[in-house]
């Protein structure tokens, strides 16, 4: 397996708890496959969580991707839900770095990836369904490092998370599926989603 570079250009002002869990997961998985993870375009006041900073594959970067790859822009592939073609294993030869929007998913999608598209990087799609950022990196890794075609990756779309007999929530995204049919999510994410759902209910009371 050849290590690649995964760049998430952080497009939000702050780092929310969801993004933090996603970024820790991307860093851990990059560490496992000998690849690198850059979180770029960070505001000078951005505080890198200790758990993230401690993972050797991870680099916090104030510069944006345009500056980082100024002389090798054509080697950067933007993972773009509106890309004209889908990512394929052969793209491992075409690109060294894979660029993602550091944005939380939204429903309906607001196309904030357009901010990166406007910079002129070549784009590839990961199929027609919106993924979370860590899922998009995981799928890209399976395709370019693991040489698995997109269509052979097992997915689960819009899974329902059941918290107890009465409470559940549907996630409006596509995830990679484990052998027992569960969506792969960052460690601690289900608990966080449940906490946020409980908070929402408390706010309504
Ligand atoms: N609603 C979003 C938007 O405003 O563009 C999608 C954000 S998605 C949660 C975060 C990033 O994951 C995107 O910027 C893109 O790089 C990548 N991504 C997610 N789903 C994708 C797909 N189906 N094809 C290509 N890239 C995808």
Secondary structure tally, helices = 7
Major beta sheet summary: 6 strands, parallel
Shape: globular
Rg over alpha carbons: 17 Å
**Would you tell me the overall average pLDDT?**
93
Q: Can you list the ligands bound to this structure?
A: S-adenosylmethionine
SSE string, helix = H, strand = E? EHEHEHEHEHEHEEEEH
Keywords: Methyltransferase, Transferase
GO molecular function: protein-arginine omega-N monomethyltransferase activity
Protein name: SAM-dependent RNA methyltransferase
Pfam families: SFM1-like
Concise synopsis of the structure shown:
Keywords: Methyltransferase, Transferase. The chain is of the alpha/beta class and 205 residues long.
Explained architecture:
It is a single chain. Helices cover 30% and strands 19% of the residues. The chain has 205 residues and is α/β, with parallel strands linked by helices. The strands form three sheets. It has a six-stranded parallel β-sheet with strand order 3-2-1-5-4-6, covered by helices on one side. Helix 1 (17-33) packs parallel to helix 6 (133-144). It is globular, with a radius of gyration of 17 Å. It starts with a strand and ends with a helix. The model has no long low-confidence stretch (mean pLDDT 93). Bound molecules: S-adenosylmethionine (SAM). S-adenosylmethionine binds next to strand 5 and helix 6.
